[in-house]
Design goal:
The protein is mostly helical and 424 residues long. The protein folds into 2 domains: 92 residues, Fumarate Reductase Iron-sulfur Protein, Chain B, domain 2, CATH 1.10.1060; 318 residues, no CATH class. α3 packs across α7 and α9 packs across α16.
Length: 424
């Protein structure tokens, strides 16, 4: 008979990652009962609490239920021992990412508070200072561009594009590698999953579910994508209701920022000196209120200002969403969850990406040279957001999607969600 592998250090890892009250669990199952997302035939998080306490590392790292949890904190609010199962599940998710992300040591170091000065201060500073010196060495002598305030005068758009494509491509590649490795882990190689059911007359009924490329996979992907876009599962939470608007604003804020970035590229008319077939002919993008003073409305000018408006609203959404999330962690006593270093690192980076981005918009509107310094700080936080995306909570989008697809194809999807219009 095969034995069960036990890692005595795994519980310590989960405690260090934020599940500090794991040992308080008395296995009463109250958490699984009150969880609004826990499916009846495969409830969580009680078994995950038990596995974590026992050091069943392999089971937890391949457990998709970890990602079906949205940290509603209902379990933590009603736990009689204050074991905070929601925080333990969050710590397990952090451990899953560090296990499957590549290279593995980056995720493990980033998960530790002592890794902060290395990966948050030293590495970004060296990389950014090198890029800035390469692009415009005069900055270090305090030589700021004169005339009209344009960030492209400080660091050329081409140089920013090169760095953005390299860093963004790196983050996407690493994220996809981790996602694929996780899919292979939870599906035992991505192949068929067979279930055996005994029948009468000593007969067996054997059923198989397809792996990665089966048609059922694409059907599951469609419904999972729908639930992600609607944020259906967040509305079921009771103790952590502010999490829904916070997450929704951040999610669509970044989508809006991506659209605005596309608009800026179209306004410029080229990428890395390669001319695009479509060009708006306006860079920087014009302010939306400039339409009020235009004697004639050029269609391209209207489109360009529309992209600018989307960027302004996206930045505001990111700031408001992350601000609500910060307030929720600080003052929502019902959830009993302050969060760990891992949570706060991502949240503060997102917040300052939004604040500095909006700061650039405001300073440029005021035609202040402070635009250039705020822009440099903004690039610093954007660098951290991109490079560490595969190892931070940003990667939840990939791993959670994979787990939700797996759950759908195995008929283990959580209870019927509310739609966004039913949230209130």
């Amino acid at each position: 008979m095969g034995g069960v592998n036990v890692d005595p250090n795994f519980a310590r890892e989960i405690i260090a990652l934020g599940g500090k009250d794991l040992r308080k669990c008395m296995q009463c199952a109250n958490c699984s009962v009150v969880c609004p997302l826990s499916p009846e035939d495969d409830p969580f998080p009680r078994k995950e609490m038990i596995w974590a306490g026992w050091g069943l590392k392999e089971r937890l790292l391949k457990d998709p239920n970890v990602w079906l949890c949205y940290n509603c904190a209902d379990c933590s609010a009603y736990c009689p021992r204050d074991a905070k199962p929601g925080q333990v599940m969050n710590a397990i998710r952090a451990r899953v990412i560090s296990e499957f992300a590549w290279p593995k040591f980056v995720g493990k170091v980033l998960n530790r508070s002592w890794g902060f000065p290395i990966f948050v201060i030293i590495v970004p500073a060296i990389v950014l200072l090198s890029l800035i010196y390469w692009a415009n060495p005069g900055i270090f002598a305090g030589q700021l561009p004169s005339g009209t305030i344009e960030t492209s005068k400080l660091i050329s758009t081409t140089n920013v594009e090169i760095a953005g494509f390299i860093l963004g491509g790196f983050a996407l590649l690493i994220g996809l590698i981790g996602m694929w490795r996780y899919w292979l882990a939870i599906t035992d190689g991505g192949g068929m999953e067979f279930t055996v059911k005994p029948l009468e007359n000593a007969e067996l009924e054997i059923k198989g579910k397809p792996g990665f490329m089966g048609l059922y996979f694409f059907e599951a992907f469609f419904f999972v994508l729908r639930d992600i876009l609607y944020h259906n599962w967040f509305k079921i939470c009771e103790a952590n209701k502010p999490r829904f608007p916070a997450h929704l604003l951040i999610f669509y804020g970044f989508i809006g920022a991506a659209i605005a970035t596309l608009g800026a590229i179209l306004g410029l008319g080229h990428i890395l000196e390669f001319r695009l077939p479509i060009s708006l002919g306006y860079y920087p993008l014009p302010w939306p209120w400039e339409l009020l003073y235009a004697k004639e409305i050029d269609p391209m000018f209207l489109i360009a200002s529309g992209f600018k408006l989307i960027g302004i609203l996206a930045g505001l959404a990111i700031i408001l969403g992350s601000g609500v999330a910060i307030w929720n962690r600080l003052f929502n006593k019902k959830t009993k969850e302050f969060g760990s270093y891992y949570d706060w690192f991502f949240l503060l980076v997102v917040f300052f990406v939004g604040v500095t981005g909006y700061g650039v918009i405001i300073a440029r509107a005021l035609e202040s040279t402070a635009t250039y310094w705020i822009y440099l700080v903004h690039l610093y936080f954007v660098f951290m957001l991109l490079v560490y995306a595969p190892y931070s909570k940003f990667a939840h989008m990939l791993y959670r999607t994979v787990a939700m697809i797996y759950a759908w194809t195995r008929d283990r999807y959580p209870k019927t969600p509310k739609y966004f219009w039913e949230a209130w």
